[in-house]
Every structure is written in C-alpha cells, then in structure tokens.
Design goal:
This protein has a single domain, classed as Endonuclease/exonuclease/phosphatase (Deoxyribonuclease I, Chain A), CATH 3.60.10. It contains five helices and twelve strands. A hairpin with a 2-residue loop joins β6 and β7. α3 runs parallel beside α4. The radius of gyration is 17 Å and the shape is globular. It starts with about 25 loop residues before the first strand and ends in a 10-residue tail after the last strand. The chain is α+β, with helices and mostly antiparallel strands and about 260 residues long.
C-alpha cells in the first residue's frame, strides 16, 4: 500500500473553518531526504501522499543548481518552495497552496571549524485566520555544536513573537540526550511518548527526528510514516504531526 492510503483522511476546512473561532487544522511534516541520493521518485510520492501544509526538509539539494532542484522537488510534490537549500546547508521548507507564507528567514548557524555549516529556515504561516511560526532545522553530529545551535534556533524563532511556534527537523540525537531534552523543556515533543524509530529505514533503532510545539496548539495526531515508498526514498522516515490551532489576532510581525 502506497502514499496517502496509509494515513487517515483529514477533515476539510470548508466554509465553516473560515468563520471566526473555528479550529484550523495544520499538518507539519519533517523529512530528511538524504540529498535525494536514493529513489527520488519515491520521495515525491511520499511527499504527495503525506499532504503536508508545511514540509520541513533536511538534506535538500545544496550544490550545483540547488535552487532549481529544490523548486523542481516542490513542484513535483505538489508544494511550493519557501526557502533554504544551498543557502542553509541543506535545510529547506516547502508549503502547500492552502497556506499563506510570510516573513521567511534563511539562517546560517555559527560555524564550527572542520564541520559542515548548518542552518534553519523559519517562516510565519497563515491559514484560515490562524498564525503559526514554523522552523525547519537540521542539527549536526557534534554534541557541543548541537547545544550551541539550539540556542541560536530558539533566538531565531523568538524574533517572530508568535503565540504558536513549531520546530521540526533532524535533531541527530535521541530524546534522552541533552539537546533534545533542552528543546523538549521549552517546547512540547509531539510524540507524547511514542518512541517509534525514525532512523534508519533499513535498521530502525533511533528516534532522532521530531516536531516540537510551543503555545496554544493541540496535537491531534502523531505518526512516523512507514510504507514501501518510505523504505526506498531515504534513510529516514518522515514524522507527520496534525495540529489544531485556534484563529487568533496575529501579533505584530517582526524580522
């Protein structure tokens, strides 16, 4: 069984969701696509099947013709390219036509000598009256660097002064390790105790990819995608989180 058939159908927003006070559904996906070195067509099918409002991508194209390659992946997946890729060390964000994307920031973390320089993409997302800040991130393999970059990441999302903030990405460590624990102390780990491994697809042993939420948003569903396309698309499994957000009067937007 492939694609969306494995996942429950989402409620349609319809007209009622546009009325003030109605709950707004928002689906956020975090997915490390391993630089599209495996089955690129399977990556596209996975992204189409997951039907994300916002897809936070790690290990996106970042070398030759990276911007056109990122845009092509977005287009083929039925999404729009928001930002990132070569400008952020391979971290990227894509979004559905259902959302309005504003105030995008492409951010490079401070450099660690001899290590690949990493980054994040953050944007304010509006849907049917709800305003949410989402950040896509890929932390590194060095523990000290991860701790430093976590602080930079929190500073980045705090620029937006958002009531609801979502951080999604490849943390490169398990929930019982210091940087993950530090993120989970300030944000809610959407897994809520579900320790289903996200890495690797061939030998699933570790949960190192996550979606974290801060503010008045309800986590309606969490799952780690697993179907035949996922198994051949990358060495990571996508994390899929459905949120319910109340429409609010957006605060003043800040860069």
């Amino acid at each position: 069984m492939h694609g969306a058939a494995r996942y429950p159908v989402r409620r349609s927003l319809g007209r009622s969701a546009l009325r003030w006070g109605a709950v707004v559904d928002l689906r956020v996906v975090s997915y490390n696509v391993r630089s599209l070195r495996d089955d690129r067509s399977a990556v596209v099918r996975v992204l189409r099947g997951l039907d994300a409002d916002v897809a936070c991508i790690q290990e996106a194209p970042r070398f030759l013709r990276w911007r056109s390659r990122c845009a092509a992946l977005a287009r083929e997946s039925g999404l729009l390219y928001v930002g990132g890729g070569g400008s952020t060390g391979g971290t990227m964000m894509l979004a559905s036509l259902r959302v309005d994307v504003r105030n995008t920031i492409e951010y490079r973390f401070s450099r660690t000598p001899a290590l690949h320089r990493r980054g994040a993409v953050a944007a304010r997302i509006h849907r049917a009256g709800a305003s949410v800040v989402v950040a896509s991130v890929h932390l590194g393999l060095d523990a000290d660097e991860r701790a430093r970059h976590r602080s930079e990441l929190v500073g980045l999302v705090d620029r937006f002064d958002s009531e609801v903030t979502v951080v999604a990405g490849d943390i490169n460590e398990r929930p019982d390790q210091p940087t993950w624990a530090a993120i989970a102390a300030e944000f809610t780990d959407s897994a809520a105790g579900d320790e289903t491994p996200t890495f690797s697809t061939a030998d699933p042993r570790r949960r190192i990819d996550g979606v974290f939420v801060r503010g008045p948003a309800r986590i309606a569903a969490y799952r780690v995608a697993d179907d035949p396309d996922v198994l051949v698309a990358s060495d990571h499994r996508p994390v899929v989180v459905d949120l319910e957000v109340d429409p609010t009067t957006p605060r003043a937007e800040r860069r």
